[in-house]
Amino acid sequence: MGNRSEFIYIVAAITGFIVLFFNVFPIINTFYWTDIHTLKEAMVNREILVSIWLSVKCASITTIIAFLLGIPLAYYLARHEFQLKSLVESLVDIPMVIPHTVAGICLLTVLSPRSPIGRFLEENHIETLGTEAGIVIAMLFVSMPLLVNSAKNAFKWVPTRMENVSRSLGASQLRTFFGITFVLSWRGILSGMIVTWARAISEFGAVIILAYHPRIAPTLIYERFTTYGMKYAVPANIILIFISIIIFIILRLVSLGEKERHDTN
Amino acid sequence: MIQIKNLNIRLGKFQIKNVNLQVRKGEFLVLLGPTAAGKSVIIESIAGLIPIQSGEIIINNREVTYLRPEQRNTSICYQDYSLFPHMNVRKNICYGLKFKKDKNNPQYQRNFKDLIGLLKLENILDRLPLNLSGGEQQRVSLARGLIGDPNILLLDEPLSALDPNTKASIQEELKKIHQTIHTTIIMVTHDFIEANYLADQVALVHEGEIVQQGYIKDIFQHPDSIFAAQFIGVKNIFRIDDLAEFSFFGLKNPGYIGIRPENIYIDLQPLVTDYHFQGTVGNLQNNQVYMEIECCNFKRNYLSYLTINRFFELELKKGMPIHFGFNREHLILIQSAEQP
Q1: Residue B162 domain-assigned?
Q2: Which residues have C-beta within 8 Å of that of residue B83, sequence separation ≥ 6?
Q3: Which residue out of A82, A85, A158, A169 would a mutagenesis test of the B interface target, given it has the greatest number of B Cβ atoms within 10 Å?
Q4: Cβ A171–B128 below 8 Å, yes or no?
């Protein structure tokens, strides 16, 4: 038994090393492709900064919209059994299995002026294609399932009985939700928001179809790479890596803080 | 007074069928029955947590059938305590008060003091639920349920997750609380001994129906169905079809007789009990504090309990001839059509 588990640990160590190397080395290796001087220049390059700011802004708006739209649905799915529930859950997950450029084309068919929705938007002077709204729509489409699923699992973690006790003690459904359920599932929801944000900021395929311009950072990097090659793509790349990792760490720390708070409770 | 009239509930394939209950103010009713009989469904429906199909629920002369849970002034406590993990004991206990219209009523302050005294919670008020033992958590849960003077306290197997010592002490506290503050209580349990200790009235629940309701003593002495008899520990239940035999036992029609193992006497000499038989010793099983002995006669095999001492005195062995019998007062007659 001991030998067997040792063998498993050895395999886990080797494969684990491969996984981590595979994840981290390409990111680190990017730094060898540039020098500090070019990087400094890139950091004050208006075009790069504007595109990165656009990426961060659109991913954040996407996360907020996903939160507002996804939380009620996630709560309902976590608490209720109904016929066709698995169908609804599959529909929520659909964007995850569609290639992203394909998703972009699907969205384009809806938003183009040839479709009723696109026409309605156009008549009301709401522009989506080639605007920030288009970027957010593309990001939202691909990242929404992550938020709904994380929030659903977080809500499931809070026992229904706890809500029952709160209701029987006089709290309305809404006060129970905000006072008990949401407070206790906040950490899981926050983790869901992190992955939603990360998924949104990394989206490229669907975004370029709805809005090549204004250019988000991945679009700019792709454009620089195809037009000028590695030398011009890498500095923007590195800045985007830094910003993504910093925001990721901040959110992760908040989420870990929440975890510790729960654990000590 | 709590009245439940013709309550019907459907949850998937499971059904609560035509439940009628009446609990007087200040009374302690126990819903007793095996797992998955529907006991918890009944109390959750009283709290308004499960939608009902038809029927009426009246609490203190007010019909609450279609009111939301927060409008009924009931409170429910579960076996897993369901304390709010992000609140300390004090906040947990006082949670319900902030939703009360008369939240500043000094009565609630008095309730708080009384309850933390009765339930010995003075020293743990600032602790979080995570740092409490099971017994402490259940005490907090009871205090939280009682502080707002609910019309009715609903307890869903409150003692079943506790170790035997803690269970005994909380059981005692529960009894003391009921005697002190006279709250109407409906408790769910599958444990006859708990019911016996706590209940004024007992309702036996079986497959979504109440099969018998009454004082515990009456149910113990006169179970009126085979399920009831089996549930309260009557091991010997026999169908009597033969005309001569059912009148011999006092049955009016073919039916069942039941006899508790502890009420069957065994001796090597003829017995002077109302009913006595000759037979042989069947299987023997040592149950630590008593011996389970099968008494076989040509008609049927009775299970009997003997103290270990008495067992050694009689020097019983499998196959030995014995006399055994019981008295009329211990005979349970069940005029029931159901099969055991």
Answers
A1: yes
A2: B92, B129, B132, B137, B140, B141, B144
A3: A169
A4: no
Beta-strand relationship, B321-326 and B275-286 = antiparallel
pTM of the model: 0.84
Q: Kindly state whether residues B138 and B276 are assigned to the same domain.
A: no
> How many domains, chain A?
1
Please say if the pLDDT value at position A265 is more than 50: no
Residue B113: phi, psi to the nearest 5? -65, -45
Q: Does residue A190 sit within a domain? A: yes
Find out whether B208 and B37 touch, Cβ atoms under 8 Å: yes
Please indicate whether residue B286 or residue A177 has the higher confidence score (pLDDT): A177
- Tell me the C-alpha distance between A226 and A224, whole Å: 6
Does the CB of A157 have a partner CB in chain B at under 8 Å? Answer: no
Beta B201-206 vs B14-23: how paired, if at all? Answer: unpaired
The tokens describing A5, both together, are 């588990």
Residues of chain B whose beta carbon is less than 8 angstroms from a beta carbon of chain A are: 44, 47-49, 68-70, 72-78, 80, 82, 84-86, 95-96, 99-100, 128-130, 141, 144-145, 148, 154
Mutate to test the interface with A, among B10, B59, B84 (most CBs of A within 10 A): B84
Residue A230 lies in a domain: yes
Query: What is the amino acid identity at position A30?
Result: T
Total domains present in chain B: 2
Q: List the single residue in A169, A261, A262 with the smallest CB-CB distance to B95.
A: A169
Q: ipTM, 2 decimals?
A: 0.86
CATH classification of the domain holding A111:
1.10.3720.10
Domain that holds residue A178: 36-264
The answer to whether residues B201 and B244 belong to one domain is no
- Write down the mean pLDDT value for chain A: 91
Instruction: State which residue of chain A sits closest to B40, comparing Cα positions.
Output: A161
* Structural tokens at position A104: 């972009």
pLDDT in tens, A246-263: 877 887 787 776 666 555
Contact A165/B49, CB-based, under 8 Å?
A: no
Lowest mean pLDDT among A16-25, A171-180, A236-245, B30-39: A236-245
Is residue A9 in a domain?
A: no
B339 falls within a domain: no
Instruction: Mark the ranges of chain B whose per-residue pLDDT is less than 50.
Output: none
CA distance B264 to chain A (A): 46
Judged by a CB distance cut-off of 8 A, whether residue A183 touches chain B is: yes
Question: A14 in a domain, yes or no?
Answer: no
Which range marks the domain in which residue B81 is found? 2-221
Average confidence (pLDDT) over A76-91: 95
pLDDT tens digits for range B27-49:
999 999 999 999 999 999 999 99
